[in-house]
Amino acid sequence: MEYVFRGGLAIPGRFRIIGPWVILTMSPSQLEFRLRSRWLARYFGPWRLERSTVRDIYPGRPHVLYSWTRINFLADDNMPWMFLAEWPEDVLGAAKELGYPVRFDTRIWPPASPG
Length: 115
What we know:
The protein is mostly beta strands. It has a 7-stranded antiparallel beta sheet. It has a single domain (3-97), classed as Pleckstrin-homology domain (PH domain)/Phosphotyrosine-binding domain (PTB) (PH-domain like, Roll), CATH 2.30.29.30. 12% of the residues lie in helices and 46% in strands.
């Protein structure tokens, strides 16, 4: 079984793609991120996280400019991958169903107030 989501991708220190330009394909064996544009996909990506390297998946804070929320994928080397999802609950639910270590305890809505 596979799930497919559209969103953005950020790997801190490497690159950030904001907007619905990335396709996340979740399967029991790996997470695959690829660009929606076939022309650009020839030159960049795909980026994969093997199931065995995913330590934790948890929601982050909503993006400031968009109504999208970050989903954090923590890999073995403590490198966070961030997927910007319009419907974060769907991404987290699919990951949980596929057997990934998901934490729902981090608040998604409403955004934390400063102070």
